[in-house]
Amino acid sequence: MKDLILLGAGGHAKSCIDAVEAGGVYRIVGLIDAPEKLGSEVFGYRVIGCDGDLPDFVGKDVEFLVSLGQLRSCARREGLFAELKKLGLKPATVVSPLARVSPHASIGQGSAVLHFALVNAGAKVGENCIINSKAIVEHDAEIGDNCHISTAAVINGGAKVRMRSFVGSNATVSHGAEVPEGSFVKAGSVVK
Predict the structure, then answer these.
(1) How many other CB atoms sit within 10 Å of the CB of residue 7?
(2) What does DSSP say about strands 100-101 and 63-66: parallel, antiparallel, or unpaired?
(3) What is the pLDDT of residues 55-92, one digit of tens each?
(4) How far apart (Å, rounded) are the C-alpha atoms in residues 4 and 21?
(5) Distance, CA of 163 to CA of 91 (rounded, Å)
(6) Could you report the per-residue pLDDT of 124-162, keeping only the tens digit for each?
(7) Is 86 exposed, middle or buried, given 0-12, 13-18 or 19+ CB atoms closer than 10 A?
């Protein structure tokens, strides 16, 4: 098993922990969060450091997953991911064993595909994305970097969600439609 540190110790981290534990690929060795959370635990995993401690891990055999959620803005997630790359630290890609990712699809570095999500044939998911529980990314759809496709959202065939976008729970992006860069698609809405 590979060692893994999660960047973020909030609610989304709990979903990531569950997917990591189910997968058996990574062993979580700690979390990184705000200084006031040092020493606290999430499901038995200790907060071992703060963002400023990332340089201490250079040269160590450990991977990192940004486990902060993303609602209105991806700025914090994007900044942490950029810092990992700048320091030469390795981003982990986590796919729940309860998800289905076609062998004909691609998932970028640092992305998480959570329980019961589907990424179908020909789909492309960028770096540092969240494909949340029960989300569907259909054939030939494209998800840009730093996007969050929320729970039970549906990205239909050939649709494009441009980078830094958020697609809310139960939203639908119609076949071939495009979500512009930096968009916020409300839960339950339809993009035609």
Answers:
(1) 26
(2) unpaired
(3) 999 999 999 999 998 877 899 999 999 999 999 999 99
(4) 11
(5) 18
(6) 999 999 999 999 999 999 999 999 999 999 999 999 999
(7) exposed
Continuous H helices in the chain: 11-23, 75-87
Q: Is the pTM of this model over 0.90?
A: yes
Residues 6+ apart with CB under 8 A from 6: 13, 16, 17, 20, 28, 30, 31, 32, 45, 64, 65, 67
Show the tokens assigned to 84: 């990992």
Other CB atoms within 10 A of residue 24 CB? 9
Q: Is 79 exposed, middle or buried (0-12, 13-18, 19+ CB in 10 A)?
A: middle
Q: Domains in the chain, please, with CATH?
A: 2-93 (3.40.50.20)
Nearest to 182 by CA among 154, 167, 162: 162
Termini Cα distance of the chain:
43
For residues 138 and 118, give the distance between their C-alpha atoms in angstroms, rounded to a whole number.
8
Dist CA 5 CA 138 (whole Å): 30
Residue 22 class from Cβ within 10 Å (0-12 exposed, 13-18 middle, 19+ buried)?
A: middle
- Give the CA-trace dihedral at 141, 144, 149, 154, to 10 degrees: -20
Give the single-character DSSP code of 180.
Answer: P
